[in-house]
Amino acid sequence: MSSRDAMRALDDPSAVADLVQSAQVILWDGRHPHVQPFASRDQLPLAQMHPVRRIGTYHGARSRFAYHPTEFDGHRHLVLAESLLECSWMQQLDRRPEHWGYLGQALWVTWRLGERQITHVPDIVGQDVDGHQWIVDVRHTQGMNTRTGVVMDVLMRATCIASGIDYQLFNDLNPQRRRNLEFLSTMRWRRRVEDTTWWPTVIERKPKQFVDLAAAAGGGPFGRNRALHVIAQCHVDIDLDLPITSTTDLRWRLSDGE
Q1: CA separation for the pair 108, 28 (Å, rounded)
Q2: How far from 26 is each of 29, 43, 88, CA to CA, in Å?
Q3: Strand 166-170 versus strand 133-138 pairing type
Q4: Are residues 114 and 219 in the same domain?
Q5: If you average pLDDT over residues 235-243, what whole number do you get?
Q6: What CA–CA distance (Å, rounded) separates 48 from 27?
Q7: What order of strands is seen across the sheet that includes strand 133-138?
Q8: Of 149, 170, 191, which marks where a domain is finished?
């Protein structure tokens, strides 16, 4: 369907309702495609799924793609991100307490209206430790009035609501938050701080500020680096919209005994 016809259809509530009813999902297991209704109540087999398309094959693309290191079902995993903003949101998703894993470009959604078709590849498909599955799209605010932005905001949202699937559309991030996320992500999946000799002292004291956490972790440059690892590995939360300083307040997570 042309962009003009698609925008006209997405501005018509009755056409959107018809499109939602027609939604199908195409999955790829690395060898064969699998087609199922979007509204299927079956869990998506994320552990067996592969991206349905490669990124970076369009030479005129304005965004930059990236490999993002994460964990998937307890194993190290690289996920393709279609843009640096998408990569930043993946770094944010890694900080969720319920994190289990996610894939980029994991399924192809198709909608039919008569003989014409609209297609969309959601940016991220994920699952929590309790089995709850969700879909995320990422789009710069300035791109929301384009065909892709409207498909995300209108058609994907309506389709997920009708099917009972959790859907989020993420836009711009605070620049300071992006810098903090990028820096902390380099330490997110390193050696676990729980396996170090200095961790018992830290967890016993549970400092409330960064300067005290660094002191409990050994002090000096080593203590500061260890404190950053504690934050990066999500034992504490901080206000990521602000620079990390000695007076940064720490909020310990429930999993660490609070």
Answers
A1: 9
A2: 10, 14, 26
A3: parallel
A4: no
A5: 97
A6: 10
A7: 99-104, 124-128, 133-138, 166-170
A8: 170
CA distances from 206 to 96, 151, 210, 212, 232 (A): 20, 46, 11, 9, 16
**Left, alpha or beta for 118 (phi > 0: left; psi -120 to 50: alpha)?**
beta
pLDDT digits (tens, 9 = 90+) for 170-211: 999 999 999 999 999 999 988 999 999 999 999 999 999 999
Outline where DSSP puts E strands in 16-159.
Answer: 24-28, 33-37, 66-72, 75-81, 99-104, 108-113, 116-120, 124-128, 133-138
Q: Are 53 and 110 in contact (CB under 8 A)?
A: no
**pLDDT, tens digit, for every residue of 133-175?**
999 999 999 999 999 999 999 999 999 999 999 999 999 999 9
Look at the pTM and tell me if it is higher than 0.90: no
Q: Are residues 152 and 229 in the same domain?
A: no
Tokens of 33: 């495609």
Query: What are the structure tokens assigned to 179, written together?
Result: 């810098």
Pick the closest to residue 84 from 175, 188, 184, 153 (CA basis).
Answer: 175
> Are residues 151 and 252 both part of a single domain?
no
